[in-house]
Amino acid sequence: MPAIEITALHKSFGSLEVLRGIDLTVAAGEVVCVIGPSGSGKSTLLRCVNLLEEPTSGSIRVAGIEVTDPDCDIDAVRRGVGMVFQQFNLFGHLTVRENVTIAQRRVLKRSRAEADRIAAENLDRVGLADKASSYPAQLSGGQQQRVAIARSLAMEPQLMLFDEPTSALDPELVGEVLAVMRGLVADGMTMLVVTHEMAFAREVASRVVFMDDGVIVEQGPPAEVFGKPREERTREFLHRVLEPARVSETEIGAHLTDGTA
Ligand SMILES: Nc1ncnc2c1ncn2[C@@H]1O[C@H](COP(=O)(O)OP(=O)(O)O)[C@@H](O)[C@H]1O
Ligand SMILES: [Mg+2]
């Protein structure tokens, strides 16, 4: 049974159609990286998977359960799906330990002792065993994001969704978060990851999905999508993100020579 099975998914905000017929299956144990330009619908797609956005039409199954079915116990589905966002959304007035235990205690009804034990395990997993008593403001962005990952892992999800988890970080802090994510890949976690980190996607993805303008333009093994993309739109996007300096110089150069600069 696939971890996620999305069929003919459409999502509109008013008259704006943001997802225009998405079909995507993620097998258990797969790491699928979604790339594509800003505004192409990547976050909306991820948010539809655990119904943070309600699809306009189409079907989404998570571990075989139809989440768009009005009778579905969406809270039960969400408990099995970890989500990590660009913004870490930690509680500033709670310690790291409390941030990692609060949902365990409230949602999973774990005892304080058990929740503390599982928090300690997962803080260790993200390399922050020594920060349990710190407050978020005392941590770097990379450390805060690792706490957010530990918080998700403490719920023992079957599946993790990541929406640009390193985009809000200073460049020198990106690596530590990617290292934690590599660890999850090595542990066999099923992951759907929206990312701009092309080298990371190339290295860890079982499959890369390129989205543009609300559709999946192409998908395949990373070596194919990055190495020999079939679609012009994919080539153009990769060219822009992989060589931004050169592309912008070329564009500025064109402006200079046609006198519009
Ligand atoms: N809640 C919302 N209300 C209205 N428009 C939205 C909402 N969320 C996203 N959009 C619009 O949907 C489009 C796709 O957004 P998003 O899924 O965030 O793209 P991406 O993550 O690829 O940058 C954008 O045009 C965005 O402005
Ligand atoms: Mg987004």
TrEMBL record:
The keyword Transport applies. InterPro entries: AAA+_ATPase (IPR003593), ABC_ATPase_HisP-typ (IPR030679), ABC_transporter-like_ATP-bd (IPR003439), ABC_transporter-like_CS (IPR017871), MetN_ABC_transporter-like (IPR050086), P-loop_NTPase (IPR027417). Keywords: Amino-acid transport, ATP-binding, Cell membrane, Membrane, Nucleotide-binding, Transport. It is found in: Cell membrane. It is a peripheral membrane protein. Belongs to the ABC transporter superfamily. Its main location: membrane. CDD domains: ABC_HisP_GlnQ. PROSITE patterns: ABC_TRANSPORTER_1, ABC_TRANSPORTER_2. SMART domains: AAA. Pfam families: ABC_tran (PF00005). Residues 4-238 form the ABC transporter domain. This is Amino acid ABC transporter ATP-binding protein. The keyword Transcription regulation does not apply. GO terms for molecular function: ATP binding.
